[in-house]
Here is the input.
Amino acid sequence: MQAATPETPFWNPYVAGFALGLVLLSTFLIMGNGLGASGAVHRIGVTGVAAVAPEHAARVPMMAELTDKGANPLDDWLVFEVLGALLGGLVASYSAGRLKLGVIRGPRISIASRLLLAVAGGVLMGVAARFARGCTSGQALSGGSLLSAGSWIFMMAVFGGGYAVAWFVRRQWR
Amino acid sequence: MLFPLTSLVAEHRELGLVVAVALGFGFGFVLERAGFGRSTKLAAQFYFYDMTVFKVMFGAIVTTMVGLAVFSGLGLADLKAIQESGASETFVWPMLVGGLLLGAGFIVSGYCPGTSLVAASSGNIDGMVAFGGVMVGTLVFDWIFPWVHDFHMSGALGQVFLHDLLGIPQAVMAAGVTVMALSLFLGADKVEAMLARKPPAPADGETAVAPTVRDALRPRRLVFAILLGVAVLGLGTLALPATPPASPSRARVAWIAAPTLAQRLLDQPWQVRVLDLRDAKACEEQRVPGSECTPLATLDKLGLATAPADRELVLVAGDALKKAPAAARAFPGRVWLLQGGFPAWKAFALDKPPAAPDASDAKALNAWKFQVAVNSAVTGAKPAPPPAASGSPAGAAPKKKKKGGCS
Here is the structure.
């Protein structure tokens, strides 16, 4: 998909990596914690479940843990961090001339199939991130830079899993 | 030690949440500018023709890692505290399998959970639905948890770091990872150049390198030079005199003395959860105020492995407890064992306090006054008249546990 308006090019990957590192370093120094995504997404999900079916949320122990005694699952710094990330993505894409509704896909796949695969992969990642106690942000990136052994196991496994499956879904991308 | 600013997760929590939004903003902004709001660019990583994911990720890891090593080496940051609060414990099997599944989900959906956020906020509908999928997936885990609990806890190694496994100083490990990453970057550039779809036509007179590759070289050199320089600086801090650790013990399971426990129960009763492991009858007769009667045999039924880690666990036993039982070690937060068990508590808080020590020893006197105060609070006995000298109670409370985990 080509944009009608000229887009600011993406940053050089090394510059982007260095910049991301500075953000993560500041987060560690200031908050004593790394960046994350899946934990906050889970909290937002539990909030939704508790709003629609409060009895159900109280019955499932892992959900009840976050809603117990009137606690608000959204009352966590990760949720605020993710809110900031959404804002940052919005401002960055807008200022780069990239903010527009659309479906990013390879040339050989229909929109419906692309969206179906996006959901399916998303569900798989959600479960996987809970097993691993974090996703690419919280576990691989943040834990990895602390040299946590489990984070490096996880990171290698992510690349391994990706490369193992890539061939089967190549039609989606190229 | 200046960093981390623990007050932002404690007394200045509201300010901390504002800072969290600002840090998240930086996170999202950089991810978008790196091109991570686009599934096609992310997916290219797995077909080797655009290694941006790899470069950005390891560039960030190396920057953060050597940055922390330098800050810690200069004595500005308490790296141990950051590692303890920022790194999750290692559970080999679920992390391995979770990683494989997440990698598969990554290439199928085109995003990882964090990048799906940025894709969604830059208007990409595939990012929005991937984000929705991730949310459903995290909830699915809640539903299936009873059946996967054992696997979720398998291969537990506790908080363990690569340099611990190799038995080398952290700064050396960080420098090693830096050199490894920089070599891999050079390899990644080679692979990209090889797989570039159109072989670049030689530019007029100057060079045969493709424009995109040539443009990439200057920032690359700069970033490489910075990273290497900082890594060397980090190694250099090894030569500095060692700074003493911020707190005497940072082991996750540690002993706590009866006076310290009393101090904590007075100061921050909401911070500790006291479990009495003696048999129910003894516990019902006399116990530490606020403690729960949970005989050792019933400990597994408390579900400590999945209990929230925001309170620290204090285990009170008869005097026989040598180490924390497995069920308590599975608790994600900090665990304390009462030194000397219940008899030590009884001697400190319940029995009649000893006579006042010599007033010339201020420390002993303060300790005694504190003991008398606790004794009177617990037993309801009238406190003995205080001697003349004044001061604050002894027995500083241990440093507060910061909420851990990155999930």
In short: Chain B has 15 helices and seven strands. The mean pLDDT of chain B is 81. Chain B touches chain A through 149 residues (CB under 8 Å). Residues 61 and 335 of chain B are 31 Å apart (CA to CA).
